[in-house]
């Protein structure tokens, strides 16, 4: 287990900006978890499956959870393809929990936590998470990212 956790938006896992950013982290290799919210929402809408957002993330039907599991598994495969460890939370299990909330839940286990998302999105971090940084990166490779504490 690393002393650094990175939670990355599923929209950025394959982005050159993210791959360059993660290679330049001072502590290697970080543990990486990936979200898949955009892909899950798109597939649920295409399948006309209802969902709502509750306190721990997306809530949906059994068919919707199957779709979410498939997309989260794809996201985990993309992370594994980068050669970075995935934290052993419950091996072989897809957690139906918002990725940012999972990062906050895992926070006590790490010296540094990053939440990496697409520029233009809003992120609100509760007070008391002093070792957490939000990083905004472009989905396209032409821009540079910015960090916010």
What would you note in describing this structure?
There is one protein chain. The chain has 149 residues and is of the alpha/beta class. The protein has one domain. The protein is built from four helices and seven strands, in the order βαβαββααβββ. A five-stranded mixed sheet has the order 2-1-5-6-7. Strands 3-4 form a two-stranded antiparallel sheet. β6 (132-137) and β7 (146-148) form a beta hairpin. It is globular and about 45 Å long.
Question: How are the SSEs placed, and which strands pair?
Answer:
Blueprint: E1 4-8, H1 16-23, E2 31-34, H2 37-46, E3 51-54, E4 57-60, H3 62-81, H4 99-106, E5 112-118, E6 132-137, E7 146-148
Parallel strand pairs: 1-2, 1-5, 5-6
Antiparallel strand pairs: 3-4, 6-7
Largest sheet: 5 strands, mixed
> How many DSSP helices?
4
Topology as a string of helices (H) and strands (E): EHEHEEHHEEE
In terms of per-residue confidence, which ranges show pLDDT below 50 for 5 or more consecutive residues? 142-149
Give a short summary of the structure.
The protein is an alpha/beta fold and 149 residues long. Helices cover 31% and strands 22% of the residues. The chain contains 4 helices and 7 strands.
